[in-house]
From TrEMBL:
Organism of provenance: Pedobacter ginsengisoli
The keyword Transmembrane is annotated on this UniProt entry: yes
Keyword Transmembrane helix: yes
Transmembrane segments annotated in the record for this chain: 35-51, 63-85, 91-117, 129-152, 172-190, 197-217, 223-239, 246-265
Protein name listed in UniProt: Uncharacterized protein
Alphabetized UniProt keyword annotations: Membrane, Transmembrane, Transmembrane helix
Domain of life: Bacteria
Length: 362
């Protein structure tokens, strides 16, 4: 998507139709995968309109046409999935064919329309844009600021995925890295906002802040993947021109890299450290758990050894354990006795495997 977008932006009138099709296809596929991915093109669309409305250059009108077409496609996908998902799943061949025809048709529409909007201009007052920017940044800071900083620091992501509890010193060091990266971003952002003509990329990022809060105010680390990448690309691009900040940014990355090597050594080389299911909070006190990511091999070994035929789950959400067990049972089945029943729960107290497993006789 990113490569096709760059090509289209550079040569909107002479672009190969393949890149237009690829851009629309990648957006369609991303939205089908998860609706939150559509936040990026929607934000770019809104940011482009605001930028054109502020500076009235007409330079991005072709891009606005493409993004408008793309938004129509995304609305169609979202509506179809929301209201016709069951019927679509039974006729997947027709769905794929319809999607391809839609992409071909909308790609053709782009080339038919771009020549007619070269002189189309919006008129958006500067004060309105200032208000929109303020609301967008404030909303993101309130609802997602803490959680996003935890993504930048990283230690809670490591906790969630690997059940690896960093020492207090490591948490402080990684938090310092997060502060340094955040400072790099805010300094570059402040400099760009003072320019006479603010780069359109700033409009895209700030619009993403606000529109993301319209999509959701709940926190989950996976939600911040897109903005994490966008901010990383923005910082890298800006420090290529403002080299005085480059050393500071590189120092923060190097510091984080060194710390992470010690953590990876503990997890992957030393390994076999005792685990327990840990409940913790992210963002604005939202509860998360490491239980869903606990290694399932100890459970499989227990089931295989005891020839288990029945499992009673004592946990609220058995999906994250039940599905891996079904997978292992499919690829490598074991002898089962229908009379053998086990009880399975998460272990939140003792450091062992993270699971409590006992038979009906125990």
């Amino acid at each position: 998507m990113f490569a096709s977008f760059l090509r289209i932006r550079r040569q909107p009138f002479k672009i190969n139709p393949f890149w237009v099709f690829l851009f629309l296809f990648s957006n369609l596929l991303g939205t089908y995968n998860h609706i939150l991915f559509s936040c990026i093109p929607i934000s770019v669309f809104v940011g482009t309109l605001l930028w054109e409305g502020r500076y009235k250059s007409g330079q991005l009108n072709p891009l606005a046409v493409l993004l408008t077409i793309n938004c129509v496609n995304l609305i169609l996908v979202f509506s179809s999935m929301r209201y016709y998902l069951e019927s679509m799943s039974s006729q997947i061949g027709y769905v794929i064919l319809s999607a391809l025809l839609l992409l071909v048709f909308t790609s053709k529409c782009y080339f038919l329309l771009i020549g007619k909007v070269r002189r189309f201009n919006l008129n958006i007052p500067k004060k309105m844009i200032t208000v929109i920017f303020t609301l967008g940044i404030s909303a993101f800071a309130i609802f997602h600021g803490i959680a996003f900083f935890q993504v930048l620091s990283g230690y809670k992501i490591i906790l969630q995925i690997f059940s690896y509890e960093c020492s207090t010193l490591t948490e402080i060091a990684l938090s310092l890295v997060g502060c340094m990266v955040l400072a790099c971003f805010l300094i570059q952002l402040a400099k760009d906002l003072k320019l006479e003509i603010i780069p359109v990329e700033i409009y895209w990022i700030i619009c993403y802040f606000g529109i993301f809060c319209i999509y959701t105010i709940s926190c989950s680390f996976r939600y911040y993947l897109s903005i994490y990448i966008l901010i990383g690309l923005y910082i890298a691009y800006r420090i290529s021109f403002r080299t005085q900040m480059a050393s500071f940014f590189v120092a923060s990355i190097a510091m984080g890299f060194i710390i992470m090597q010690f953590i990876w050594y503990d997890i992957f080389i030393v390994g076999n450290f005792p685990l327990k299911a840990v409940d913790f909070k992210i963002g604005n006190r939202q509860k998360e758990t490491t239980a869903h990511f606990l290694p399932k091999q100890p459970v499989i070994d227990f089931l295989r050894t005891n020839k288990t035929g029945q499992i009673q789950y004592l946990i609220d959400e058995p999906y994250f354990v039940e599905q891996p067990i079904l997978f292992y049972k499919t690829i490598s089945p074991w002898d089962e006795s229908k009379n053998k029943k086990i009880f399975l729960d998460y272990d939140h107290t003792s450091y062992k495997t993270g699971f409590l497993l006992y038979t009906q006789d125990d």
